[in-house]
Amino acid sequence: MFEHLLPPEPDKIFRLTGQFAADPRADKVDLLVGLYRNAHGLTPVLGAVKEAERRILETQTTKSYLGFEGDRGFIAGMRSLLLADAVPEARVAGIATVGGTSALRQIFELVRTLMPDAQVWISDPSWPIHAGMAEHLGLAHRSYRYLDRDSNGLDRDGMMEDLRAARAGDIIVLHGCCHNPSGADLTLSDWEDVARVCLATGAIPLVDMAYQGFGTGLDEDAAGTRLLAQRVPTLFVAASCSKNFGLYRDRAGVALAVTSQGAARDAAQGHLIAMNRNNYSFPPDHGARTVDLILHDAELRQMWEAELTSMRETITRNRRALAESLRAETGSDRFGALAAHQGMFSLIGATPAQVDALREDHAVYVVGDGRMNVAGLTEQTVPIVARAMAQVLG
Length: 394
Ligand code: LMR
Prior knowledge:
Layout: H1 17-22, E1 29-30, H2 47-59, H3 72-83, E2 92-98, H4 99-114, E3 119-124, H5 128-136, E4 140-145, E5 147-148, E6 153-154, H6 156-163, E7 171-175, H7 188-201, E8 204-209, H8 218-231, E9 235-240, E10 252-258, H9 263-279, H10 286-296, H11 298-330, H12 337-340, E11 345-347, H13 352-362, E12 364-365, E13 371-373, H14 381-393
Parallel strand pairs: 1-12, 3-4, 3-7, 7-8, 8-9
Antiparallel strand pairs: 2-10, 5-6, 9-10, 11-13
């Protein structure tokens, strides 16, 4: 059956990873995939995770099935991490998923099943999987303006104007914090505007929360999501534990639906469970169990929050150091926005030819749209990258 087929386009983010591995240059710098790297350029297992895993190993007596929704302690812990007390628990349905990507997938598929005519609104730019997944599922998608390419900040007016064209039942995908790929985030007053647009149009917001704790802090990063939960009748949240718990390959995530209490919540829970059952029956448990333990044990939680704070502070330091080095190299403030962005990523404003030049002439690898994983920088690589950027983009 495959004889007459060509392989699909390679993934936009992982496309260059193999090329990086094969690059023999000793001073090569990998700023591709969203991985946090410490001062030694490594992505170690967090201490809190190691300790939780040790406890699981010692105390777990069975690996028999859980319910289709997964570990209930994990779902409750994540609900409270994401929503705190913004809405009563009885309004929230939730399932554990195979990482944040599959939380999105379960929600998209649920939307397609229940509202096949819904359009999915995606920021321009966005994580490429948002549009790719909508297409894969046959959901119509539209883009809304998001980034002002001149200032490298939010195009607030353009965004709200575009979103006002959403129809009742459409889904508006929002990045909860640390916008991927731009690093430009909404302020609380922008979130208020989004809530107003959703109420006026009847569109349903879907918050993709992949980096909670990597921007300003756990509560600050979730403030927009909590605000929406309080304002709109229905909200979806897809959250990932890949980055903030460093559980990348273990695939822990949750899909939440905030709705009205009672029958609507029970219906949402039933439909989410049916998504898990039909797609993979049971979500993986190990990462979820690890997060459950960390969130509910005071000592582990404190340890994890300290490690998360340290990762966030390293990213912020990287951002400032890079912006300062670029100021020194270029004699201008052209890259000043890099210091103001939030989270792992920034768009550096490079054309595809400039991305190629960074890679070919300077061994600096960024994604083709000019997305840089700032969390992949170290004290040693900041000056190398700043010099390369100044030469290629300056
Ligand atoms: C990224 O955007 O680099 C990460 O979220 C990894 C992925 O799955 O694309």
